[in-house]
Amino acid sequence: MNRPLFDPTRRAFLGALGASALTSPALFAEQLLRTPPQTEGPFYPDKIPLDTDNDLIVIGKNTTPALGEVAHLTGKVLDVNGAPVKNVLVEIWQCDANAVYLHSADSAPKAKQQDKNFQGFGRCTTTDKGEYRFRTIKPVPYPGRPAPHIHFKVKRNNRDLLTSQFMVRGHAGNARDGVFNQIRDLIDRELVLVDFKPVKDSKIGELQAYFEIVIGLTPSEADMNQKK
């Protein structure tokens, strides 16, 4: 398996770099940098679908897969000390391969264009090791957003802990994307970029991507997490 994009050593280095730049002793105490929050955007589903599992390629018992490059998205949710955050809900949503979101404001006027076989939204509860896993498609650009991206939320008991997005590392559209360019800090930009790499020996050209989500917990939340 490929080395994680942001293992604790790499994030620790970036954290120390950012802390030294700001000369703040408090920042040195944090081993990992928090994943920067970003806008939810206008297309979080206005009606949650019946199928909300972590496989966005197929819907229910339908055997016809969605269009697009199949991507296995895995990762962990961690706190700033590198400890896994278990039993939190990770949600993702994105447009289909034809650039249509699962939202009536987007799908209604583009009904003929929408890929009816793409779930568009999924959920996964983290394991004891903080792990999550999705099968989806590699994101694509669309008018107004030249940077392909996947939106995500981390929730506990219906409370949002983090809302953000990640983008495809090396995509030319990143430089022209307004949301990405709202992130001024170069280290924060690094923390939302993800590599999509070919799955070895895949006969259908599957991809794999690994993304670590680092959230800041209050002491009471951290204590609650350890007890669960």
From TrEMBL:
<keyword id="KW-0560">Oxidoreductase</keyword>
<dbReference type="InterPro" id="IPR015889">
    <property type="entry name" value="Intradiol_dOase_core"/>
</dbReference>
<dbReference type="InterPro" id="IPR050770">
    <property type="entry name" value="Intradiol_RC_Dioxygenase"/>
</dbReference>
<keyword id="KW-0223">Dioxygenase</keyword>
<dbReference type="Pfam" id="PF00775">
    <property type="entry name" value="Dioxygenase_C"/>
</dbReference>
<comment type="similarity">
    <text>Belongs to the intradiol ring-cleavage dioxygenase family.</text>
</comment>
<keyword id="KW-0732">Signal</keyword>
<dbReference type="InterPro" id="IPR000627">
    <property type="entry name" value="Intradiol_dOase_C"/>
</dbReference>
<feature type="domain" description="Intradiol ring-cleavage dioxygenases">
    <location>
        <begin position="40"/>
        <end position="164"/>
    </location>
</feature>
<dbReference type="InterPro" id="IPR039387">
    <property type="entry name" value="3_4-PCD"/>
</dbReference>
<feature type="signal peptide">
    <location>
        <begin position="1"/>
        <end position="29"/>
    </location>
</feature>
<protein>
    <submittedName>
        <fullName>Protocatechuate 3,4-dioxygenase</fullName>
    </submittedName>
</protein>
